[in-house]
Amino acid sequence: MAGYFPLGINHLGKFIKLGSAIMIMGIAGGAIWPLIYAWLKDKAGLDFQLAYFITVLPCYLYILYFAIAGHKVGLKGK
Question: Cα–Cα distance between 50 and 55 in angstroms, integer?
């Protein structure tokens, strides 16, 4: 079973360094979501469950998109 990283940089050709750098930045960017959660919970006054749902849902939706169709983008002409 392949992981997300090899699938994400597959068929990038000369852009493989840029693609892998962007993926690593995305992983490191995950450190921003806890700050957004804390702001929603503390400053915006949302319930902790609602704040968690708001911050986690976009991430899981993107992972679901990539699992279903996103990894096929660009392979249609090959």
Answer: 9
Cβ neighbours around 67 below 10 Å, total? 11
User: 26-65: buried (b, 16+ CB within 10 Å) or exposed (e) per residue?
Assistant: eeeeeeeeeeebeebbeeeebeeeebeeebeeeeeeeeee
Sign of the C-alpha dihedral computed for residues 16, 18, 19 and 20 taken in this order: positive
Of all residues in the chain, the percent with pLDDT exceeding 70 is 86
pTM score above 0.70? no
Rounded to whole angstroms, the Cα distance separating 43 from 38 reads: 8
From 50, 21, 16, 22, select the one nearest 36 (Cα to Cα).
Answer: 50
